[in-house]
Amino acid sequence: MVEKNPPAVEPAAAVVLSRSEHTISRRNIDPDALKILFRLNRLGFTAYLTGGAVRDMLLGKEPKDFDIATDARPAQVKKYFANAFIIGRRFRLAHIHFRGGKIIEVATFRRDPDPDVLDLLAAGSATQYAFGTPAQDARRRDITVNALFYDPVSASLIDHIGGLADLRSRRIRVIGDAGERFREDPVRIWRVIRYAARIGFAIEEDIGSKIVAQRDLLSACSPARLFEEFCKDLLGSQARPVLTGLKDYGVLRLLLGRIGEAFQTDPQLFNKVCSLLDIADREKSLRRDPGLTEMAALLFWPWAESLLISAPPDPYTVLKKAFMNAEMAVALPKGLRAQVIDVVALVARMIRALHTGNMRWSMRGRPQFALASRLCFLIEQNRAPEAGESFENLFRQAFPARPVFGTKRRRRPRKKKPPPQ
Ligand code: ATP
Ligand code: MG
Question: What pTM value is reported for the model?
């Protein structure tokens, strides 16, 4: 059965580019995303590709994920797609799950809520928001280059707010009044810095000064939501440039408390972080994506190293206390924090062993040993290890005569008993 919501009315001002006027090809779109788009269309709904996928394809980059905007309500999406799950506290949307952990987000066109609803949303007491037209949906988005729509049926590109012009002039422009949009949702401050850094676009001066004037608002955001954003940057393709952007705008100290303060005020420390993240970003570009624990351990290593330099009796307690005292706005889940502490304590032990020749090889039984070994290699060699390379190689090079646990010990030849006389 074909179901249709009231048709969306688009303002005459929208710029629509036909297939021959833009560079997006269906071939570059995830086949599952295309299937969802066409299916929604066959059911009588309007459905566009939007967000980072359209932006990245126009820039000739491979999109990280494919977000869909539609006039189908979340419940309707759930009804027609067996693998759809409704999620979201602030805004309900559908996640459609595919094999291999792939998730495609399908959000209903919406408009910015009224100020009183915004207050309720901020207080966490309202989950209602108003659905809207595609034009309203474009206007409620964060930056112009993130608000383009691609219609797979006509293969046309739809621009309601000047995103195409900004793409051409390589600038990041906040939709609406930047000060107001940052007040509404301070995470947009972070997002502006992120996308400018990721795609190498300029942030206009007046937006830059608003970021500086309003950045403190980030400290009041939900620590769990800030952690979600933190993961996007660590796992995203350009962790180093984004971190540099956050530092340049004085945002790091707000997000990472004392650790961020140290990054902002100690250029040597920050350079170390940058060179480690550069290596990780290179790995990502080769499709050897580091995991979250690895990325977090790399980020925190230069700071942790300074605490562990003097071989404290219990590095775990030292690091745990230091993390607690850091007063980060980003809430690291306990499990992740514990893993990071394990890894960096092991790395410190390994690096010391490379200077002293004393290694407790029984540590090999620790769950994080393999990851610590990889990081130790990466820190010492300024490159990720190739298959088969590890801390043991470095140890053997430094101390060829010392035994390595697991390899056969060289035994002294037994003295032959003198034959009985
Ligand atoms: P990528 O997925 O490559 O990181 P993206 O632009 O797709 O980039 P998402 O976090 O996936 O980023 O968000 C999808 C889209 O939703 C964005 O492009 C933007 O249009 C909109 N959006 C996300 N967060 C906000 C926000 N806080 N305020 C307004 N719009 C937002
Ligand atoms: Mg996205």
Answer: 0.89
